[in-house]
């Protein structure tokens, strides 16, 4: 899409799964993409290589989003390489499941650090540095609505992200920057599939009336809409991309 040429998007947690699909889709749409990762440089480099082989532009940037200084350096790198940042996609996150009564402090603290404080860190930086006319897209989860057992702490972090989304959309008044969230349902990624039986996966796939799991590309398509020119009138909203499960 020529409308997005010369626009720069940071996608956090983009070395695999939904994040990688989002990075690839935004590059296809014409964005220059900063592929953020915290762990596997090789996986992030592979995403960049795939984008470049298809004629797109991309850069890898290591940053643990729970570290505010590292997030600042990531924005520095994007600005140094490309002159500025137009889109932030807050995809980085972890999901650990446990009943609330059985969850230990580490279970709580780690998810708060990455899912909530990590999103806060990138939002704070974007609020100061995103170019006017930009877009912020946070990743939530449809479990905020479904309220499934064992998802308590994870869903709580994402409910907080949804609150930040609506409030920040109002705080950026006058700059033509939209702030929205995409809330996937069960999606076929390693994060979702690991540790689940085939029977459980099949049961969860049939929870929605389309009777299948989502794909990373399904979620990337929703992000693409919100990041692109056709999504410009959508602001302060949570788009549940889940096949109708709730």
The CATH class is Alpha Beta
Approximately what portion of the residues adopt beta-strand conformation? 5-15%
- Helical stretch tally: 9
Helix/strand order: EHEHEHEHEHHEHHHE
Walk me through this protein's architecture.
There is one protein chain. With 246 residues, this protein is of the alpha/beta class. The chain has one domain: Rossmann fold, CATH 3.40.50. 46% of the residues lie in helices and 14% in strands. It contains nine helices and seven strands. A seven-stranded parallel β-sheet has the order 3-2-1-4-5-6-7, sandwiched between helices. Helix 1 packs parallel to helix 2, helix 3 runs parallel beside helix 4 and helix 4 packs parallel to helix 6. The protein starts with 7 loop residues before the first strand and ends in a 5-residue tail after the last strand. The relative contact order is 0.15. The model has no long low-confidence stretch (mean pLDDT 96).
Considering the chains and any ligands shown, give keywords for the structure.
246 residues; alpha/beta; Rossmann fold; 9 helices; globular
Topology:
Blueprint: E1 8-11, H1 17-28, E2 32-37, H2 41-53, E3 58-62, H3 68-82, E4 87-90, H4 105-129, E5 135-139, H5 143-146, H6 152-171, E6 178-184, H7 190-193, H8 198-205, H9 216-227, E7 238-241
Parallel strand pairs: 1-2, 1-4, 2-3, 4-5, 5-6, 6-7
Helix pairs in contact: 1-2, 1-9, 3-4, 4-6
In short:
It is built from nine helices and seven strands, in the order βαβαβαβαβααβαααβ. The protein is α/β, with parallel strands linked by helices. The chain has a seven-stranded parallel sheet, sandwiched between helices.
């Amino acid at each position: 899409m020529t409308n997005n040429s010369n626009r720069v998007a940071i996608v956090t947690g983009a070395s695999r799964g939904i994040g990688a699909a989002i990075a690839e889709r935004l590059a296809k749409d014409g964005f220059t993409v900063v592929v953020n990762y915290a762990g596997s440089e090789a996986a992030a480099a592979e995403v960049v290589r795939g984008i470049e082989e298809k004629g797109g532009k991309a850069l890898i940037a290591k940053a643990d989003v729970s570290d505010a200084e590292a997030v600042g350096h990531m924005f520095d790198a994007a600005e140094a390489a490309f002159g500025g940042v137009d889109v932030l996609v807050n995809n980085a996150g972890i999901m650990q499941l446990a009943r609330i009564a059985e969850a230990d402090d580490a279970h709580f603290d780690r998810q708060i650090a990455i899912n909530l404080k990590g999103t806060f860190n990138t939002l704070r930086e974007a609020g100061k540095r995103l170019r006017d006319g930009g877009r912020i897209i946070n990743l939530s989860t449809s479990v905020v609505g479904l309220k499934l057992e064992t998802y308590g702490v994870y869903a709580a972090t994402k409910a907080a992200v949804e609150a930040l989304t609506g409030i920040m959309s109002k705080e950026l008044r006058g700059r033509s920057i939209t702030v929205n969230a995409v809330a996937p349902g069960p999606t076929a990624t390693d994060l979702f599939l690991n540790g689940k039986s085939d029977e459980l996966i099949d049961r969860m796939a049939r929870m929605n009336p389309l009777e299948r799991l989502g794909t990373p590309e399904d979620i990337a398509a929703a992000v693409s809409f919100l990041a692109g020119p056709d999504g410009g009138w959508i602001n302060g909203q949570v788009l549940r991309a889940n096949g109708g499960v709730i």
